[in-house]
Amino acid sequence: MKRKKRYQPKRMLDKRMAKTYGGRKLNIKRVVLVALILLFILVGIPLFILQNKLIKTSSEENVIANAGETDSNSSNNNTSNSTETNNPTDNTSNTTQVDDWRIRLANYDNLLPEDFEVDLANIDETRQFDARAIDYLTDMLNDMRKDGIVNIWVQSAYRSVARQKELYDNKMNEYLEEGKTQEEAQKLTEEYINKPGSSDHNLGLAVDFNYVDNSFAKTDAYKWLLKNAENYGFILRYPKDKEDITKIEYESWHWRYVGEEHAKKMNELDMCLEEYVEYLK
After folding, report:
1. In contact, 261 and 251? CB cutoff 8 Å
2. What is the DSSP letter of 194?
3. Phi-psi region of 204 (alpha: psi -120 to 50; beta: other; left: phi over 0)
4. What is the enclosing helix (H) or strand (E) of 48?
5. Most C-beta atoms within 10 A of its C-beta, which of 24, 45, 95, 256?
6. CB 237 within 8 A of CB 251
7. Which residue from 63, 66, 67 is spatially nearest to 55, judged by alpha carbons?
């Protein structure tokens, strides 16, 4: 005898159906999650390995590049050290520019251009000096007089290139009239007078004191200048032991403004201006 199916209310049936399909949905989610995990493993791990290889390669390249730079710097340092060895006096940094107007050279190798000009200020009614430096000259002369050096005056200061030429030609003619050859007259003239454009006087930075001869070396003024002139930025331009470098005979009366720091350094190093400018290069 067949058993009759027991009547199930629709509400109960719906719950069972929901449970069944809900379980299926849950299983599908699990499958998808597992698939994503597998996909990450299959794709992500190889990408991670590849990225590490690229980073390693980049690091190796940087190491090689840095090594090259180190070798280059080492080579430069060796070259620098070699240069310093060959030039033992050049042991300070070059903070001062060689084109500093205060240490500009005007000599046999460094002629001033024909159109060279400088701003001038009056020392007295007839003599002039570079306007940028005249206060140092004035202070020096005033302090000399305060120290009892009263027998001191500026005989010559700024001289135009035209005036320099006039003095040069006159001296040349004197020697020619004495029977000197042109070559002899030129050599003798240039021992005391620069060619036009090659004189500190053309720069407006030089002064000649008193009678413009070496009797000045016997005066108290000269002794005072040797001791104190550097404090005002002045140097003895043509020392006796530098004649082979300056190409000018010793002139005790000729003093040149170069600035205090340069004057003190030059005296410390026992250098004339030509040597000092070369030292700074």
Report:
1. no
2. P
3. left
4. helix 10-86
5. 256
6. yes
7. 63
d(CA 124, CA 166): 22
Cα–Cα distance for residue pair 75/70, rounded to 1 Å: 8
Sign of CA dihedral 110, 111, 117, 121: positive
pTM of the model: 0.63
Q: How many other CB atoms are there within 10 angstroms of residue 200's CB atom? A: 27
**Given the structure tokens 């033992």, which residue do they identify?**
88
Residue with tokens 């550097």: 230
Helix (H) or strand (E) holding 134: helix 134-146
Query: pLDDT tens for residues 108-162?
Result: 899 998 788 999 999 999 999 999 999 999 999 999 999 999 999 999 999 998 8
Could you list the active site residues? 251
- Measure the CA–CA gap between 228 and 143, rounded to whole angstroms: 10
- For the chain, give every domain's residue range: 8-70, 101-160+200-280
The yes or no reply on domain 101-160+200-280 and CATH 3.60.70.12 is: no
CA dist., res. 38 & res. 171, Å (int): 107
Residues 6+ apart with CB under 8 A from 192: 171, 248, 249, 251
